[in-house]
Amino acid sequence: MTETKSYECFEVSIEDQVAHIRLNRPEKRNSMVPSFWVDLPMIVQDIDDNSLARAIVISSTGPVFSAGMDLGAFTPREAASADEARRNHIRHGAAFYDSARKTQATFNALEACRLPILAAIQGGCVGGGLDMVTACDMRYATADAFFTIFEVNIGMTADVGTFPRLVQQMSEGMVRELAYTGRRMSAEEAKSVGLVNTVYPDQESMIAGVIDIAREIATKAPLAVYGCKRMINYSKDHNTADTLDYIAIWNASMMQSAEMQEAMQARQEKRAGDFTELPPRKGAYGTGH
């Protein structure tokens, strides 16, 4: 059974333990308006907290994956007086900082989610679009996809998450080149440097392939998959000794022999495993838990 919900920027469906979040503003190149930043973490948290699926796919519609943040939607209104303009100017720095932190928290929610998140990218993945997919667990692309750290082209420094994540996903020199030049990186080049897992000939085959990978993930024990994500994320910011110690502590407290036995028995009997879902939780996203 498929359940579908619609939002201003998204359409969400859940089938076969896979949640599919589609950006659905193709006429606006799936640019990110204010509701995007509110709805995306809410959607992801609802799926995760209530164990509605075991994996999440984020894809898009139309010829462009995402043109990034819709700067026009965030343009402040014109001041009514010189005094108001002065006050707005004084407040600008603090207001921009708060806004940046809120948008950063939206993509932090993808990393904090217990479920694997797979991004399926067609056409342009620009600015905030690149910020978003770097926060996902895996990235897949069509042959016509390209990636751009676009902010330098409009006199900005990328601030929503590209740099701290991208330097862990490709060489620092390549990140610097993309950041300083604002050039396009093709799907094939992105695959060659490790940013993209697989390049598909078109969007139809990509979506089918990525959904199949998500379904495969969904057949595994949810607690084991969650543990893998947690350990991989932890290892990015810690040395080998600390990570090994944390894995040992994690397994000592979280590993369930019944789930292991069920996984092995289901494999022998060539059937789907009867695994326990992750428990519902009331988490606080963006806190690094």
Description of the structure:
- With 289 residues, the protein is of the alpha/beta class.
- The chain is globular, with a radius of gyration of 20 Å.
- The two termini are 32 Å apart.
- It has a 7-stranded mixed sheet with strand order 1-2-3-4-5-7-10, with helices on both faces. The chain has a 3-stranded mixed sheet with strand order 6-8-9.
- It has 2 domains: 216 residues, Alpha-Beta Complex (2-enoyl-CoA Hydratase, Chain A, domain 1); 47 residues, Lyase 2-enoyl-coa Hydratase, Chain  A, domain 2 (Orthogonal Bundle), CATH 1.10.12.
- The mean pLDDT is 90.
- It is built from 10 helices and 10 strands.
Strand element count = 10
Mean pLDDT: 90
Radius of gyration: 20 Å
In CATH terms, what is the fold-level topology of the largest domain? 2-enoyl-CoA Hydratase, Chain A, domain 1
3D shape:
globular
Structural class: alpha/beta
Show unreliable segments.
none
N- and C-termini, Cα separation: 32 Å
SSE map:
Layout: E1 3-6, E2 10-15, E3 18-23, H1 34-49, E4 55-59, H2 82-112, E5 117-121, E6 124-126, H3 128-134, E7 138-142, E8 146-148, H4 162-166, H5 172-181, E9 184-186, H6 187-192, E10 198-200, H7 203-218, H8 222-235, H9 240-254, H10 257-268
Parallel strand pairs: 3-4, 4-5, 5-7, 6-8, 7-10
Antiparallel strand pairs: 1-2, 2-3, 8-9
Helix pairs in contact: 1-2, 8-9
